[in-house]
Design a protein that fits this description.
By secondary structure, the chain is an alpha/beta fold. Helix content is 38%, strand content 22%. The protein is built from 17 helices and 22 strands. The strands form six sheets. Strands 14-15-16-13-12-18-19 form a seven-stranded mixed β-sheet, with helices on both faces. Strands 9-8-7-10-11-21 form a six-stranded mixed β-sheet. Strands 5-6-22 form a three-stranded antiparallel β-sheet. Strand 7, helix 7 and strand 8 form a beta-alpha-beta unit. Helix 2 packs across helix 9, helix 3 runs antiparallel to helix 5 and helix 3 packs across helix 8. The N and C termini lie far apart (55 Å).
């Protein structure tokens, strides 16, 4: 499969063909004929057919990864990362084309997809530092004539089960670190938008990644369960809903696997009266309506403290109502469609439920349509006023372009509101007060905290992951945690 130079519509024949798995260095058909369609969420056009791969397909991928492991582990770290250096260069070269392809299958605008790919590249770049990041420690004479050292060693086959909302970036939170540290990898991407990452795999092969080091098996829960149950898989990285993250954590634990399971979110943005309200409004709009709200760092509840509430409400409604919603590849589009008709219906149902529970629909996107795109999965920017923690829209992750507004009389009251929600993924505060910001970060109890930052997304050299019901495991994605997760520290005590 050659990398396309431009994002072109697939022919009808291509779109009707099953998307191949990648096993042992070869593109191959799944052993099943069962497929699900992959559609452009803005136009409804059929882009491909994703196979619902079987346990046999997963077992073949794990076997290929297991077979490749000894030689790849024995490859010096300085040589392994040369593949990643070449991959980074290829990703930079093809970034614009990849961004357009990703926009077609996900719906985000090109600026957002380009940013996603850039963040994926950032992880490849960070993984290139493995010769340093994997270093151990040494101490001479822990006893007379006895030395002690630690070394980091890979564990074998790892696997990733990743979601639709960032189908390029999130897999690259995991497999570049896994292979850089000497492991091999099996990826099960989302069945809703797997096409662009296929291009990433092609570029990895072009960069020189050996056969079997990276494998891709498409499918649904059957393939995911097969990964979790396979005895030769040493660890699993997962991103998705909290309910599924909890199940993944439990299943992996039963079979003795390492696991990092990143779940859902219900993030709060707290705005104090002394805040730069223009900055806070722009950040809130970008956070919750960017990517049509389909991201775990969206601040889906804005808490206006004291007199800030009325001021920021007016600006938010004006700003949200003026957003240009449309097809992701059309110039000037700020917000695209949601991923599927089914997800659109879920988002609308939650807005309906919020209204029944007492929230006021201050801006209603339920009937939103875009001229020229009658088959698109559209939900317009929606603002619900009077959202309380006891409401479904105050507790559940909507994962759509829906912002809830609520009041608090103080920072302390805002923190109490946050703690009435089970999640602990991210939060932000907007203030000019260093004291208020420090108190907030001290008491928030949330893993990723933004101070005058709307989307608290850590760079690749820092860990990414939540707390409480937003994360199950001990070691998070990215940063030093990634190195810890994909290696084991061996302690060697020597007397000569």
């Amino acid at each position: 499969m050659a990398v396309r130079e431009t994002a072109q519509s697939p022919s009808t024949d291509e779109a009707d063909l099953p998307i191949p798995n990648f096993i042992g260095g070869e593109w191959m058909r799944s052993s099943t004929s069962d497929t699900l369609p992959v559609h452009d969420p803005g136009t409804g056009q059929l882009l491909g057919q994703v196979p619902l791969s079987t346990c046999d397909d997963v077992h073949a991928a794990v076997a290929a990864a297991k077979e490749a492991f000894p030689a790849w582990r024995a490859t010096p770290a300085v040589d392994r990362v040369q593949v990643l250096f070449r991959l980074k260069a290829l990703l930079d070269e093809h970034r614009d084309d990849l961004a357009r392809e990703l926009s077609r299958e996900h719906g985000k605008n090109v600026a957002e997809t380009s940013g996603e790919i850039r963040r994926g590249i950032e992880n490849v770049e960070h993984a290139c530092g493995i010769p340093t990041l994997m270093m151990g420690e040494t101490l001479e004479d822990v006893a007379r004539g006895v030395d002690c050292e630690t070394v980091r060693q890979p564990l074998g086959v790892f696997a990733g089960i990743t979601p639709y909302n960032f189908p390029v970036m999130i897999p690259m939170w995991f497999w570049p670190y896994a292979v850089a540290t000497g492991n091999t990898f099996v990826l099960k991407p989302s069945e809703q938008d797997p096409l662009t990452h296929q291009r990433i795999v092609e570029l990895a092969v072009e960069a020189g990644l050996p056969s079997g080091v990276l494998n891709v098996v498409h499918g649904d829960a059957t393939a995911a369960d097969a990964i979790l149950e396979h005895p030769d898989v040493s660890g699993v990285s997962f991103v998705g809903s909290s309910a599924v993250a909890r199940l993944v954590y439990a299943k992996a634990g039963q079979t003795g696997k390492r696991v990092q399971a990143l779940g859902g979110a219900k993030n709060h943005m707290v705005v104090l009266p002394d805040a730069d309200l223009d900055l806070a409004t722009d950040a809130a709009i970008s956070s919750v309506f960017g990517s049509a709200g389909q991201r775990c760092l969206a601040n889906s509840v804005l808490v206006g403290v004291g007199e800030a509430y009325d001021q920021v409400k007016v600006q938010l409604l004006e700003g949200a109502d003026s957003l240009r919603v449309g097809y992701g590849l059309d110039e000037g589009t700020f917000m695209g469609p949601v991923i599927s008709r089914r997800h659109r219906d879920r988002v609308i149902d939650l807005i309906d439920q919020g209204e029944r529970e007492g929230a006021d629909v201050a801006l209603d996107g339920r009937e939103f349509q875009v001229d020229g795109y009658p088959e698109g999965h559209w939900v317009g920017p929606t603002v619900l006023e009077g959202v309380e923690p006891g409401m479904s829209v105050g507790q559940e992750e909507v994962f759509g372009p829906v912002l809830g507004l609520t009041r608090a009389e103080s920072v302390e009251d805002a923190i109490v509101l946050m703690h009435e929600v089970a999640y602990g993924n991210a939060t932000s505060i907007f203030t000019r007060s260093g004291r208020a910001a420090r108190e907030f970060r001290y008491h928030a109890g949330i893993s990723m905290i933004g101070v005058n930052i709307g989307v608290a997304a850590p760079m690749a050299c820092f860990p990414f992951g939540g707390s409480r019901a937003s994360f199950y495991g001990d070691l998070k994605a990215q940063g030093k945690d990634a190195i810890e997760f994909f290696t084991d520290k061996r302690v060697v005590i020597s007397r000569w």
